[in-house]
Design a protein that fits this description.
The complex is a heterodimer of chains A (218) and B (204). Chain A is of the alpha+beta class. The radius of gyration of chain A is 20 Å and the shape is elongated. Chain A starts with 8 loop residues before the first helix and ends with a helix. Chain B has two domains: 105 residues, RNA polymerase sigma factor, region 2, helix turn helix motif (Rna Polymerase Sigma Factor, Chain: A, Orthogonal Bundle), CATH 1.10.1740.10; 53 residues, Arc Repressor Mutant, subunit A (Orthogonal Bundle), CATH 1.10.10. Chain B contains eleven helices and no strands. In chain B, helix 2 packs antiparallel against helix 8. The longest helix of chain B is centred in the first third of the chain and has 21 residues. In chain B, 46% of the residues are buried. The chains are: A alpha+beta (218), B mainly alpha (204). Chains A and B meet through helix 1, helix 2, helix 3, helix 4 and helix 5 of A and helix 2, helix 3, helix 4, helix 5 and helix 8 of B.
Chain lengths: 218, 204
């Protein structure tokens, strides 16, 4: 897999900091899994975490904190969770496979437009919700022109998506902010599956499209 | 917070606030001693040095005092149990503890562990594939160079780094807090990172 488009450094840093909203973190983790180049940059961003930790002010811990810790070390380890790998061969990166509990076939698709299906998972935040949206569309399907309420991070999982000059293929990530308006189109001869993290729902340029998708609850 | 009678405690790990590069090196050795010998004195020194900072970040990021203590407990339980997976060649002790605390905090504060990020180890660059060990800078050199860059950042770039790493705010939240466009926040973060990348380029 040759990856041409990566998350912005700023996005990777925010992930390293633990400051990305969950849907965005899932997309970044999915990209990192298959991208040695980003893991290499990520090492420096982690080092920055160490610098910021050591420079942080000290907040005294309870006087019995270390003794309590030692007592807990005596107990069995079962209470410590590690992420379970989804074992069956899956066509999704592990962070997405764990979320879905399987591969692309396990996604409960729902038709949004002719030739385009979607599945949206909402992640509540203080005000409103961010979401992670799976999208599967046939070649030639254009996603009508839209802007975004904030950041949008798209990762192509299979097939290909053309957005202006850019051709996004499996593993590629498009990292957009609220200044972008676009109408990506599926190209090639196989359906395109992608996953999209978004601060808020897309804002379609066409009022008719906006009204129709709102009625469908999409 | 100290245990002045603890003979195993390296003086530079906590007593010299300006000797951070040296302290980072000692933190690495402490974790190696925990991994290889189950050394509780080393573990205690590490805990006394870093737990107040883990707690401070947890509070900055929205934990109440009891919750912050719990994040400290869970973080250092994981440090003890995962010590053998720590590799100084892949990044320093501070970076590793920060990453563990970050994952613990996300799980505890959001109470939605179902998706989980990659583990700290899965996120790491594998030196054997990505960067030959001989070419890799020692973690203390990386840490000291990154620290030098951070100290020299212009205020607007330093602010977005601090709001991300210390306060745990997303780019959109930072944009709201500073009253600047989202794109401006990302540009400042990108500029800050370019300086770090330049400072570390002989590792690439």
């Amino acid at each position: 897999m040759t990856i041409s488009f990566h998350p912005d450094d700023a996005t990777l840093m925010s992930y390293a900091a633990g400051a990305l909203g969950q849907p965005f973190a899932i997309v970044v983790a999915s990209h990192l899994e298959g991208c040695p180049a980003c893991r290499r940059e990520f090492a420096a961003m982690r080092a920055l975490g160490g610098v910021m930790l050591e420079a942080a002010p000290a907040e005294p811990v309870g006087s019995d904190a270390f003794d309590r810790l030692l007592a807990r070390l005596q107990r069995p380890e079962s209470e410590v969770g590690t992420p379970e790998r989804v074992c069956a061969p899956v066509d999704l990166p592990q962070p997405l496979a764990r979320l879905i509990g399987g591969g692309i076939g396990a996604v409960p698709w729902r038709e949004a437009l002719p030739g385009a299906e979607t599945y949206r998972i909402a992640f509540p935040i203080a005000r409103g919700a961010q979401s992670l949206r799976f999208l599967r569309a046939i070649p030639g399907r254009e996603i009508p022109e839209h802007a975004h309420a904030g950041a949008e991070l798209t990762m192509v999982l299979s097939g290909a998506l053309r957005d202006g000059e850019r051709l996004y293929q499996a593993g590629d990530v498009g990292d957009l902010d609220d200044a972008t308006t676009h109408n990506p189109v599926v190209v090639g001869d196989e359906p395109c599956v992608c996953v999209i993290a978004e601060d808020g729902p897309p804002k379609f340029t066409s009022p008719e499209m906006q009204a129709m998708l709102s009625r469908l609850g999409l | 917070m100290g245990a002045p009678s603890d003979p195993t405690r390296p003086a530079s790990a906590t007593s010299d606030p300006h000797g951070r590069a040296c302290a980072a090196d000692n933190f690495d050795l402490l974790i190696v001693r925990v991994a290889e010998h189950g050394d509780r004195d080393a573990f205690r020194t590490l805990f006394l040095s870093l737990s107040p900072k883990v707690k401070a970040l947890a509070i900055r990021q929205g934990a109440d005092p009891a919750g912050a203590e719990e994040i400290v407990q869970e973080t250092f339980l994981a440090v003890w149990r995962k010590a053998r997976q720590f590799s100084p060649q892949r990044g320093g002790a501070g970076a590793w503890v920060f990453a563990i605390a970050r994952n613990i905090r996300i799980d505890l504060l959001r109470r939605q562990p179902a998706w989980q990020a990659l583990t700290e180890e899965q996120e790491e660059s594998d030196p054997s594939n990505d960067c030959a060990p001989d070419d890799a800078l020692a973690s203390r050199q990386i840490q000291s160079r990154v620290q030098g860059v951070v100290l020299g950042l212009p205020p607007d770039q330093a602010a977005v780094v601090r709001l991300s790493y210390v306060d745990g705010l997303s780019h959109s939240e930072i944009a709201g807090a500073l009253g600047v466009p989202l794109g401006t926040v990302k540009t400042r973060m990108n500029l800050a990172y370019q300086k770090i990348r330049t400072a570390l380029q002989d590792c690439r």
